[in-house]
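Renewal narrative, Specific Aim 1. Our central claim is that a sequence can be written position by position from structural information alone. The example that follows is taken directly from our test logs and has not been curated for this report. It begins with the structure tokens describing the chain, in the order in which they were read.
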């Protein structure tokens, strides 16, 4: 048994159905899977892809259930679904760990393509919570004493954004359809 969670906010496209009855398909099931589409799915938070985002954290799912289009109420709650992905389902769908995926695509630390940044230690706060710490994304990159001040903010790549947000959300991507039988529980959030 592998237990995952899915948070569904009130008023969202999933909020008007019971996934225990309907199951869950990606928003664009026919889209071609690719590294770039996985990065885009996580780094921009789009759901217009061939992937479904799940989390290993009830707390993360609950946070998503609270952040719907409208505030959850008893009459129109958000939901946290418990999802059990049995081993026999792995022949019909693929589970992707985004952190491993990005690491596998960034195997040359001296190469051009990297997930590393050029900011200070607090820079990751801005990647995790850009609304609260966005000013750190714009601050000039630190330089050694006597160095020429940079003309730009620290380097931020989509690869880094993906890793940090996947870690923040304890995120796993599913490629394929989750049948209704996987949805073993639902908690109303209001």
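The sequence written for that structure reads:
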């Amino acid at each position: 048994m592998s237990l995952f969670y899915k948070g569904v906010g009130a008023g969202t496209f999933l909020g008007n159905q019971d996934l225990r009855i309907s199951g869950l398909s990606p928003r664009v099931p026919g889209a071609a899977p690719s590294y770039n589409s996985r990065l885009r799915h996580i780094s921009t938070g789009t759901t217009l892809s061939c992937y479904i985002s799940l989390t290993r954290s009830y707390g993360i799912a609950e946070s998503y259930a609270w952040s719907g289009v409208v505030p959850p109420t008893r009459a129109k709650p958000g939901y946290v679904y418990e999802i059990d992905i049995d081993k026999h389902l792995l022949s019909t769908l693929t589970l992707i760990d985004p952190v491993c995926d990005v690491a596998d695509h960034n195997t040359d630390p001296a190469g051009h393509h990297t997930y590393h940044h050029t900011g200070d230690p607090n820079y990751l706060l801005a990647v995790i919570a850009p609304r609260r710490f966005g000013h750190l994304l714009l601050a000039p990159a630190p330089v050694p004493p006597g160095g020429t001040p940079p003309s730009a903010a620290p380097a931020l790549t989509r690869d880094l954004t993906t890793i940090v947000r996947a870690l923040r959300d304890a995120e796993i991507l599913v490629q394929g359809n989750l049948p209704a039988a996987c949805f073993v529980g639902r908690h109303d959030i209001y």
